[in-house]
């Protein structure tokens, strides 16, 4: 518009048509940018979840299919105007997930059947009262049933599962009872019911057999993803603590701001309650599919969801602790700081293992249990550090001490949450009949890969908590350890202590080996 | 059943009919208890919100009213079978809140109009393609429009406001386009549209004029209630801290377990997101009512809601600190403990004032600001206590110190949250044009009532942060202070310092008066 007015001032003789053209042009540009924006958004929505595009095509398909009842003459003669109920059913019943479609189809079918029968009954009753009494009796019956049925929708269980059914019940009852006073009824009722069944069946078949979207699978994935989000945060937080310690020898480089946004990822976990509940509700209706049986323990997923959100709440508080870096830390503070890092990292590993187990539908691996024990042990270690330093005789800056103490305290709470999540995932794997993880050998290999390297003062302690028999496998393991040790020595560490705890044996012996 | 079998053994000659009677009796008893349970639940649901009963009656009323189109012959002759669309509309469109009903009615009306016009257009287009091409063209058009419209439902804005409209759009377009190939169309379209309008208008009128339930009012109340719940928790927490201090002179008696359940009340705040959002969405559709204008800033309520939930998250963590009572507390710990109590209490008072302001649609009172300043001052006081004791030369139990430090740290975070909530409520009161609180005099009186009495060491400091001119009102105030002072001296306190800060003036002078 600015350019436009400048042009007009420079060319005062210019005709008004030119101005109109310019303003049209700017309008066109605006429209173009708006269209581009919508196109961009459309593309993003499609790319985020391509199943959405498939769903849109499926709905189009189902609708075109039931339209056949209108196009094809013989079918039309059979059902007449009632064919529209098939279209209506498809439009209203077809949902994104199989569970949603089944829930609405079954609700609609059953409600139509029951309400239809009741409606015919009401009509018969009304006929007994003579022609004058009939509309009055029907009116009262419609009022009563509509009011009562509407009230039942406030019952939580009805609201959750049968809300749509109750709506259709009221609708069908009113229609049948009322239209009965005017037209031949049974024929219409039969036509409607059969067309509704055809519509519902079309939706269910297309929904189940053409690229199905299972709400149960979505819930399963959502819970696994949420657990992983917490793990990602705790891992990032651990790194952050390390970088704030100013530990140059740290393997993990200080992440830049873009990567730090991963620390914000848990926020979506806090708001996932509604999604989880609706998915669990739909999943309840779904038939068995893949490795999910008909009565898969969906409620257990909700339980895990609650615990995950509780943990996310603690993480929200922890998030506020990131910026509080100690300036000149005492040895005591450094110790606590390093314990915090270990707690955070171990919790992260437990959560990763749990998320992995849920994703692959296996029992949580032994590694998850070991990391859990490690994190509890680290929490105990923290307590013992406090005990050792119970009387702070040296000068300590309380203000700086506070920040590490708060971090540690929240982390201990998080460990408790993670423990609960772990128990809950165990329950889930039992109830849902998950597989056992593949083999012990593989576990041992992953154990090696997941070994914790704790820098305590100027030592590096490498703990492997698993029975090690003299097998070929263990020789490999040992050579792996030696390689790790070499790497760390070249990294500038002087002393390395390797403790091998036989936790699976009867006694817990410790065999420190100086390399 | 057990009694039954005993009877049979004692009377082996007893006939089978007796057994059947007994089992019928037990079945009847079970049924009776089930019915009693449902009756109890029904009563509870009705008592929790009597508007639910009214709503059920309203739906019955609307439905009976539109049934008139079937009963009354002249009307029936005018609309014929299309009268059923009025019933359908009422059943589907009538929602609990006015906003819900308006949203669905308007969506349905507009979508029917647009889709009807498009459908007629599609039919004309199809006719150009000859009798053989017609079903094919219509089929393709239905498929395309249904697929595109279904996809638009994934756009967040469409999903939020026009989801129902899109459904009705697909439905009407399919019906009109398809049925057009069979019957005289315009007449039917006109009948349907007018019956839908009659149904929708009936719903809207009954919904607005018969005991209306405004979603906006509900949202308003919900936010005020949530803020108050946080206040209740913090007040309870403050009391709890005092009782854990073992302070016998505390005015508030130690609450029993039943009363402690109030500390759990904030949990519902954490899960209120979905409710808030749906209420705000419905409220957007509502016409002006009472003191809510047409474009009341509903989004601001959602902002406050987010902050309140954030605060509730911190409270969740604080809740874990309640059980950690200091055993043998040092003077330093006692100081911090008492500061924590003050922070908690002041925050609670701020939140109560804010909740009160929202409820009454007034600007937050000056008392809210003063309590806010007090809580920030207490947080600063805590920091200065830390500074004073920065080097703990005496023996301190770090483990016990930790619990108080964590409590204090979380409370400081809560103060930050409360500050944000306070700013947000201020914004709301500006945007929504709330009233000013009644008069300054009344404020001063409440100020006196709400004066904070802080025990610092063996002094009692009474701070009043307000300009005090020599008016009759202030003389009363002063005599009130003297009475308070007397009470505290008789309570065993030796020294009392009264600071009067003129915070409303240009400079902040402090006039301590030794009584």
Keyword list:
transmembrane (chains A, B), homodimer, 515 residues, mainly alpha, disordered C terminus, transport (chains A, B)
Write a structural description.
Chain A is mainly alpha-helical and 515 residues long. Chain A has helices at 2-10, 16-48, 51-71, 73-79, 83-93, 98-128, 130-152, 156-161, 163-179, 185-209, 215-245, 257-260, 267-270, 273-285, 298-319, 331-360, 366-388, 398-431, 440-449, 472-490, and strands spanning 452-456, 459-465, 495-501, 513-514. In chain A, 72% of the residues lie in helices and 4% in strands. In chain A, α20 links the parallel β2 (459-465) and β3. Mean pLDDT of chain A is 77; it is low at 1-10, 247-255, 443-471 and 489-515. At the A-B interface, α2, α3, α5, α7 and α9 of A face α2, α3, α5, α7 and α9 of B.
Radius of gyration of chain A: 33 Å
Strand content of chain A: under 5%
Got a strand count of chain A?
A: 4
- Which assembly state applies to the chains in this document? homodimer
Q: Given the C-alpha coordinates, what overall shape of chain A results?
A: elongated
Helix content of chain A: over 70%
Derived structural class of chain A: mainly alpha
Distance between the termini of chain A: 78 Å
Could you tell me which chain pair has the largest interface and how many residues each side has? Answer: A-B, 79 and 79 residues
Output the number of helix runs of chain A: 20
* Overall pLDDT confidence of chain A: 77
Stretches with pLDDT under 50, minimum 5 residues of chain A: 1-10, 247-255, 443-471, 489-515
Major β-sheet annotation of chain A:
4 strands, mixed
What order do the SSEs of chain A take from the amino end to the carboxyl end, as H and E?
Answer: HHHHHHHHHHHHHHHHHHHEEHEE
Please state how the strands of the largest beta sheet of chain A are arranged side by side: 1-2-3-4
């Amino acid at each position: 518009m600015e350019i436009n007015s400048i042009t007009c001032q420079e060319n005062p003789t210019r005709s008004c048509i030119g101005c109109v053209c310019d303003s049209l042009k700017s309008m066109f540009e605006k429209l173009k940018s708006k269209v581009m924006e919508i196109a961009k958004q459309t593309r993003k929505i499609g790319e985020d979840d391509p199943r959405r595009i498939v769903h849109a095509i499926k709905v189009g398909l189902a609708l075109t299919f039931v339209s056949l009842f209108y196009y094809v003459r013989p079918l039309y003669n059979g059902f007449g105007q009632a064919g529209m109920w098939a279209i209506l059913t498809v439009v209203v019943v077809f949902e994104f997930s199989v569970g949603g479609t089944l829930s609405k189809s079954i609700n609609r079918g059953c409600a139509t059947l029951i309400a239809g029968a009741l409606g015919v009954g009401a009509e018969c009753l009304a006929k007994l009262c003579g022609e004058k009494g009939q509309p009055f009796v029907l009116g009262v019956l419609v009022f009563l049933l509509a009011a009562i049925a509407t009230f039942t929708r406030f019952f939580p269980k009805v609201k959750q599962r049968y809300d749509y059914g109750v709506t259709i019940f009221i609708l069908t009852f009113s229609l049948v009872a009322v239209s009965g006073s005017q037209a031949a009824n049974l024929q219409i009722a039969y036509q409607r019911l059969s067309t509704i069944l055809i519509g519902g069946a079309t939706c269910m078949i297309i929904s189940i057999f053409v690229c199905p979207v299972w709400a149960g699978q979505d819930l399963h994935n959502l819970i696994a993803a949420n657990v992983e989000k917490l793990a990602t945060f705790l891992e990032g937080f651990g790194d952050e603590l390390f970088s704030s310690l100013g530990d140059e020898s740290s393997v993990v480089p200080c992440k830049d701001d873009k990567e730090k946004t991963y620390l914000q990822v848990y926020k979506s976990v806090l708001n996932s309650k509604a999604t989880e509940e609706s998915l669990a509700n739909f999943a309840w209706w779904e038939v068995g599919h893949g490795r999910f049986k008909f009565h898969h323990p969906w409620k257990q997923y909700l339980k895990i969801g609650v615990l995950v959100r509780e943990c996310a709440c603690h993480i929200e508080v922890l998030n506020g602790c990131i910026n509080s870096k100690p300036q000149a830390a005492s040895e005591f503070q450094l110790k606590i700081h390093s314990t915090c890092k270990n707690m955070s990292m171990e919790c992260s590993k437990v959560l990763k293992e749990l998320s992995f187990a849920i994703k692959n539908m296996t029992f949580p691996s032994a590694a998850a249990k070991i990391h859990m024990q490690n994190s509890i042990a680290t929490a105990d270690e923290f307590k013992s550090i406090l005990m050792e330093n119970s009387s702070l005789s040296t000068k300590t800056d309380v203000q700086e001490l506070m920040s590490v103490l708060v971090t540690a305290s929240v982390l201990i709470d998080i460990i408790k949450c993670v423990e609960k999540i772990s128990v809950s995932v165990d329950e889930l794997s039992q109830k849902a009949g998950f597989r056992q993880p593949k083999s012990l050998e593989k576990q041992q290999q992953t154990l090696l890969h997941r070994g914790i390297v704790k820098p305590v003062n100027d030592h590096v302690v490498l703990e492997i908590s698993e029975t090690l028999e003299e097998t070929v496998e263990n020789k490999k393991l040992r050579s792996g350890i030696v390689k790790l040790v070499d790497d760390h020595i070249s990294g500038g560490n002087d002393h390395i202590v390797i403790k091998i705890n036989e936790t699976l044996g009867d006694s817990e012996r410790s065999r420190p080996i100086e390399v």
